[in-house]
Write a structure and sequence with these properties.
Length: about 120
């Protein structure tokens, strides 16, 4: 079973979006930066959401970093094993890589939506 860990969304105004999602019980758990862009991890107890500041307000769906849905993230028990099992039939955009205490890989669904495979504390 692969429970959804979090959903990532590009937004045109990260503070405005944080305020909006707080209406649904989401609170900021972390503030981070990657590639010179700020992003927040919000949670409401059972669900997490990453808000990424968009590169271009009002951009098209095909523009990386345009406002809109970014990716789904599935928590896995064995990212490397899942990568090996899926790589012949799934388009991987990033093979498994270590980030802090995480092992992460990215692939795309048939419509091109990015899917993150996520394993916490691999090898522990």
């Amino acid at each position: 079973m692969y429970p959804i860990h979090h959903i990532g969304i590009y937004v045109s105004d990260i503070e405005r979006s944080e305020k909006f999602y707080s209406l649904f019980g989401f609170k900021r758990e972390k503030e981070m930066e990657a590639g010179g862009r700020k992003f927040y991890m919000l949670g409401n107890g059972s669900t997490r959401m990453e808000l990424f500041s968009a590169r271009v307000a009002g951009g098209s769906e095909q523009e990386p970093g345009a406002p809109g849905f970014r990716h789904l993230c599935f928590e896995c028990e064995d990212v490397k094993g899942d990568y090996e099992r899926l790589r012949e039939t799934v388009e991987f955009t990033r093979t498994p890589f270590q980030h802090d205490n995480l092992l992460i890989a990215f692939c795309r669904d048939p419509d091109g939506i990015e899917i993150e495979l996520f394993q916490e504390n691999p090898g522990a």
